[in-house]
Design a protein that fits this description.
- 2 copies of one chain form a homodimer.
- Chain A is an alpha+beta fold.
- Chain A is built from 8 helices and 13 strands.
- The N and C termini of chain A lie far apart (48 Å).
- Chain A binds chain B through residues 135-136, 140, 142-143, 172-174, 176-177, 179, 214, 217-218, 221-222, 226, 228, 246-254, and chain B through 135-136, 140, 142-143, 172-174, 176-177, 179, 214, 217-218, 221-222, 226, 228, 246-254.
């Protein structure tokens, strides 16, 4: 089967029409979101859901996240990224494997259940992490499509995955909230260039390869505008794997934190990388046999 | 007379109560702004004024600014700052001296007239510039009080100056709009440290000395919050010389540009620097005899 989304080739950048659906099944009254919400996700490539989690649940999750960060030494080495020159934990990968509450969150019907509906399949966790960006010195993260990397470097064949980000702090445009280009998920920007060896070691800090050109980004922004993923702690953002997004730096005193889960359809299991010499490590891309998640129905308070 | 606002001393940082008024005369019906606006400026340390300029005037000013930037070679060397590695003009200082339209803008009743009212005195231009920050790569500018620098390095004795920024592009929180801490102008943060030789050569890129500590900034943000100076091209921002402000970087494709004038009361003329061995050059701090501006009543369309 020909690669539907060739990228990181010697040819000049080009735009390729998306051949995959965004919402993989018809809406019915049994769906975990409203018809309008499903249509918004299809049109914009993202969805903001407020008030799904009670204040008590948000408090419990925020506290647990802080405890995990404080106890970073207890976690496996490659799962934890600390601030250079200090022991401050910035990222904890494989979040659902670190802690029972986070395991329940990964399987929560409000995350995994909605992902299952939108992707029209059983789902598993492709990547997950707890993110913490401090105030004053938060660095920007440049525009990219996650799918471009997952396809090129992880061998994800089709656009049948999405990200769920549960905010654990208030996010505002001026403290570096995620920015998304609504509608950009309907085109695949095939990038020029070649994946360097061990690209993930630098791309997690600053992605250079696999990002659209300034001209493409300016065109996409002009066509679609830029939306700010603002909301109080407890807000859930869902976004399609191909939605172009990025975030600005943050000089405000307010940190940003979220629990982040990438759900992939079990039928969309990873192959050999489409544009890299070897797979990224397991903490970045779940290389095991996809095991369908069992939904968790409980609460966190 | 003792220095009312000592700063850049060996002593630890401390907060000093402002001894100067913010609005230097009582409001009357002859004032160029409403009573509510004057009260807002007094309380918040800034004021947003929309629709003072017609779309035709904004267009004329935007076009003139672009022409000045395109013709940077024609301007005096030290007045122009170009992007390292290119001829792209980023800043043009002494803006009112470069061009007749900009001279009129500096004297416009909607800028200088309001400044004259708020400062309760004749005014002159202490510093002015055309700012242009490109998209994609706009750098952050860290929190500071302008007065702290003008006092320490330019010898401005009292808090009787303000800045007027006329937006020449749309400014939004996510493209690096100015952020201000409303109410922060009522306290002077006396900073620890010493002004290095020729500090302005690096401080225009990144201010290190004379900025409040993270602890002070976090306290001020908690007390006062952070306001985003958002608005379409043509919006006028006025802010007190001591209001703490800064701006985030900007990865969006949208540049930011403004025409920027600092008005000082003629009675507040510069002395020897309060905390530096010599004055900054004239393009950063007007060292001549303060000449009261004659207001300009015309329009730009």
């Amino acid at each position: 089967e020909a690669d539907a989304y060739p990228t990181r080739t010697p040819e000049p950048e080009r735009w390729i029409e998306r051949v995959d659906p965004v919402v993989w099944q018809d809406w019915t009254e049994k769906a975990p979101i409203s018809q309008a919400e499903a249509e918004r996700f299809d049109r914009d490539g993202f969805l903001v859901l407020k008030d799904l989690f009670s204040p008590e649940e948000v408090r419990a999750l925020v506290d647990r996240a802080a405890a995990l960060r404080a106890d970073g030494d207890a976690l496996a080495g490659e799962d934890v990224v600390t601030e250079p020159g200090s022991n401050e934990v910035r990222t904890i990968f494989r979040l659902e494997a670190q802690d029972e509450m986070m395991s329940k969150l990964a399987r929560d019907r409000r995350l995994a259940g909605i992902a299952r509906f939108l992707l029209g399949d059983e789902v598993y966790v492709h990547q997950s992490r707890l993110n913490y960006k401090p105030g004053f010195t938060g660095k920007e993260f440049y525009w990219h499509s996650d799918f471009e990397t997952w396809h090129a470097e992880d061998g994800m064949p089709r656009m049948r995955a999405l990200s769920a980000s549960l905010l654990l702090t208030d996010n505002r445009a001026h403290n570096g909230a995620l920015m998304l280009m609504p509608g950009s998920h309907k085109v695949f920007v095939s990038c020029q260039g070649e994946t360097p060896e061990d690209n993930h070691k630098s791309s997690l800090q600053k992605q250079e390869i696999g990002t659209p050109s300034p001209e493409s980004l300016a065109d996409l922004a002009k066509m679609h505008g830029i939306a700010d993923a603002e909301g109080p702690a407890g807000t859930l953002f869902l976004f399609d794997c191909n939605t172009i997004h990025g975030s600005n730096g943050n000089i405000t005193p307010d940190p940003r934190s979220n629990a982040f889960f990438v759900y992939n359809a079990v039928s969309n299991r990873l192959q050999a990388p489409f544009a890299a010499s070897k797979n990224r490590p397991d903490f970045l891309a779940n290389l095991g046999d996809p095991e369908p998640l069992e939904l968790h129905e409980g609460r966190f308070d």
